[in-house]
Amino acid sequence: MMFCNEYFDQDFVTAKPSGYPQNSLNVNKYLKRLLKLARIERHLTPHSLWHTHIEAGVGIKEIQQRLGHTNVDTTMNIYAHMTMKKKPHNSSVN
């Protein structure tokens, strides 16, 4: 692996040794390899990992801050479908 003399910190979650963004295909490949090594038999993508915030019960305000959304409405619009899944549906018919 070749290392760069300078690292350009651009606040990416996954980055090359230079600091520039990692190719999404490589990220998926690395995640698949890690899941196999950990013997986790579940299909996960980098995007699906964000959904674990809701599943773990993390508050919407904290999720907003972690994702860098300036407005909590943005976060709510993205995660509304996840919070709806957690509420039981009323299946009774009157």
Describe it.
The protein has helices at residues 24-37, 46-55, 60-67, 72-86. It has 94 residues and is an all-alpha fold. The longest helix has 15 residues, at 72-86. The protein is flat and about 40 Å long. The termini are far apart.
Structural class: mainly alpha
Helix segment tally: 4
Strand content: under 5%
- Rg over alpha carbons: 18 Å
Average pLDDT reading: 78
Instruction: Kindly state the number of beta strands.
Output: 0
The ordered H/E elements are: HHHH
Q: What is the CA-CA span between the terminal residues?
A: 66 Å
Structural shape: flat
By oligomeric state, this entry counts as: single chain
What key phrases describe this protein's structure?
94 residues, disordered C terminus, 50% helix, mainly alpha, 4 helices
Task: Outline the fold blueprint.
Elements: H1 24-37, H2 46-55, H3 60-67, H4 72-86
Give a quick precis of the structure:
With 94 residues, this protein is mainly alpha-helical. It has helices spanning 24-37, 46-55, 60-67, 72-86. Helices cover 50% and strands 0% of the residues.
